Amino acid sequence: MTKVKTLVLPVKGKPAKSEAEETTVSVGNGGEWHQTATGSQPALTTNQGLPISDNQNSLRANPKGPTLLEDFILREKITHFDHERIPERIVHARGTGVHGFFELTQSLEKYTTAKVLTEVGVQTPLFTRFSTVAGGSGSSDTPRDVRGFAVKFYTKEGNWDLVGNNIPVFFIQDAIKFPDLVHAVKMEPDRGFPQAGTAHDTFWDFISLTPEAMHMVMWIMSDRTLPRSLRMIEGFGVHSFRLLNAAGESTFVKFHWRPKLGLQATIWDETVKIAGADPDFHRRDMFEAISAGDFPEWEFSVQLFTQEEADAFPFDHLDATKLIPEELVPLQVIGRMVLNRWPNNFFAETEQVAFCPSHVVPGIDFSNDPLLQGRLFSYLDTQLSRLGSPNFNQIPINAPKCPFANQQRDGQMQMAQPTGRVAYEPNTLAADSPREQAKTGFRSVAIDESGTKARIRAESFADHYSQARQFYISLTTYEQAHLASALVFELSKLEHPHIRVAMLGHLRHIEESLAQRVASGLGIDDLPQAPPAAVAVQNLDPSPALQLIGNMKDMLEGRVIGVLIADGSDATSIDAVKKAVAAAGAKLKFVAAKIGDAKLTNGSLLKVDGQLAGTPSVMFDAVAIILSDETATLLAKEATAIDFVRDAFGHLKAIGVDKGGEALLKTAGIEQDAGVITIGNLDSFIAAAKTRQWDREASVRELA
Ligand code: HDE
């Protein structure tokens, strides 16, 4: 065995050692490397604490002989590895979690006793997990899908889980339909595909037979399901909940999260390309924002209303396929959420976090929404199978941060060691054992229930099309075109034409012109009969609050601008862009055909952040092309450079150009429009970069 000297590798949590500090590395007979502890690092041990002398070789009968069963170190290591995975979530398997806090700015004392909603200024720690719904845990971040928005508040009175989505309504009205919905959307059971997508027969077959889903269908076919960033989505508790005050009076409430950065969506073609360019696009975006100290923030709002007000709504608020338009019940901002700490360990926290809508605190209660009622059962049940034990509440990410105590005992993976002989209540033997809290404990709202037991749906749930129509007519014309095209895309993928026809029938109830657009996009000349509607479709007023474009903010904070450069790019222009982009609060990344440094006109070296082939323009919100005439000619022969500008143009992004940039655009066959701006005109470029060039769209693609 030869002894050689080498530098110590940096150990997590410790700074890299100075060059002078060395450790001994041995080269074994087979030529492999061993790193020997010097005393400053912790010893590598088995799970029983036994120090391990050799982590590279298993125990063999002889150097070329069989491995011995006796090797308990090998067996322990491999066995643990074999059991590393737990079942992924049935839905919402792919998620990104972040720690943060909630701060109340306006007390709801009049309505609730919940401390988290009454103690102004108090910061309540929380953990938020964003997710896609249909895809597996290893699927890409950007399919067309609903985003889960689940928040666990660690309040002084126990954990409160607000397990919502980025869409305020849901597909179905009754929990009993959920397994069918999920089976229909997930990959088809005989073939194991498609992964993470709705554009397949089983999904649309089920939907076409489920008129109550039509409102949600409008939302999922809109650009809401193509978020630019998880920092730029809204969150909704969806169901009506109840608040309960000290006098025992109850008020209905809906919860809303609104991102400070406004809403942003990507263009469908861009979304598809992002999935290839960076399947972790959203997770990475969140990770980078948190690492850079750009902590995303949301306003927390409530819609409050009484039973009497609810009775006057033109829909039933207990029906999760309906929303309460803001014009009817305005939003009141009562607090904010800031996400500011990435988890230490993905599995321990993001994977093991267990949300349950049944986790509420005193002063918050449930409504009779039948979907919510079913959820109250499902989540606890699924955690038992996913985390393997009723003691999942002891996993640090799930444990309340306030004291908790009861007489539940034992079970697999019990970590606590309750003492004493008393494990029941009431008792006289342990004066200090936990007792009921008659005054401050959780109480259900006292409601009179009467009627006939039956499997039945309330008549007030029968209107399936009015709010779907309201959503569609509230959108801007650009969004309507995207929605129609999304329907054409999805329905065009079906093998069974009768499902397409059935969907067109539903669309006729929503808006005749939408049905016609989609039919024409699908090459269908004659519209089918609309199916019978249980009740007449109401012509509800448009609600601008439902728009996505209307909720975008013309700002650059939180966004990224990509600049295509090369050796010989103009130093003065680049310097000016750097300053202007920094002043606007955006990030700037330089892309070039070669990674390393680019030598600018003044001889200075500029670090390149991304190589062209791996950093397409879909990664950016706006781009600039700053090239010398010579490099513009060279890049004209580079397909990735042409794609860079063509995609930026096609995805309606502002493009800043110098003369070289203009030349590249010309080679790419792009006719300049108002969104292509001379880089010397920096203010105009920055202004244009804050939004998409919606008017350009008609010139780059035919939308349904
Ligand atoms: Fe879920 N849902 N869901 N869901 N849901 C789950 O729980 C379920 C529904 C939502 O980041 C599961 O722990 C039923 C509506 C989010 O860990 C499961 C019904 C809304 C998450 C489950 C619904 C949601 C889940 C799968 C109809 C928006 C991810 C794994 C009655 C308000 C939470 C798990 C996380 C996860 C059941 C409908 C949101 C199986 C039965 C409506 C954000 O328990």
Question: What report would you give on this structure?
Answer:
Residues 45-433 form the Catalase core domain. It is an enzyme of class 1 (oxidoreductase). Its EC number is 1.11.1.6. Keywords: Heme, Hydrogen peroxide, Iron, Metal-binding, Oxidoreductase, Peroxidase. It comes from Crenothrix polyspora. With 704 residues, this protein is an alpha+beta fold. The protein has four domains: 1-56, no CATH class; 95-394, Beta Barrel (Catalase HpII,  Chain A, domain 1); 465-550, Hemocyanin, N-terminal domain; 554-700, Class I glutamine amidotransferase (GATase) domain (Rossmann fold, 3-Layer(aba) Sandwich), CATH 3.40.50.880. 27% of the residues lie in helices and 17% in strands. The chain is built from 19 helices and 21 strands. It has helices spanning 72-82, 178-185, 201-208, 214-220, 268-277, 281-291, 307-312, 346-351, 370-387, 466-474, 477-492, 497-510, 512-521, 571-583, 629-635, 639-650, 659-667, 682-689, 697-700; strands at 2-7, 22-27, 33-35, 95-104, 123-132, 147-155, 158-165, 235-236, 241-244, 250-259, 297-305, 332-341, 364-366, 560-564, 587-592, 596-599, 605-608, 610-611, 622-625, 655-657, 676-678. Strands 4, 5, 6, 7, 8, 9, 10, 11, 12 and 13 form a ten-stranded antiparallel sheet that branches. Strands 18-15-14-19-20-21 form a six-stranded parallel sheet, with helices on both faces. A hairpin with a 5-residue loop joins strand 16 (596-599) and strand 17 (605-608). The N and C termini lie far apart (72 Å). The model is unreliable at 1-22 (pLDDT under 50). CIS-heme D hydroxychlorin gamma-spirolactone 17R, 18S binds at residues 89-92, 95, 129, 131, 148, 150, 163-165, 170, 175, 178, 238, 320, 355, 371, 374-375, 378-379, 382.
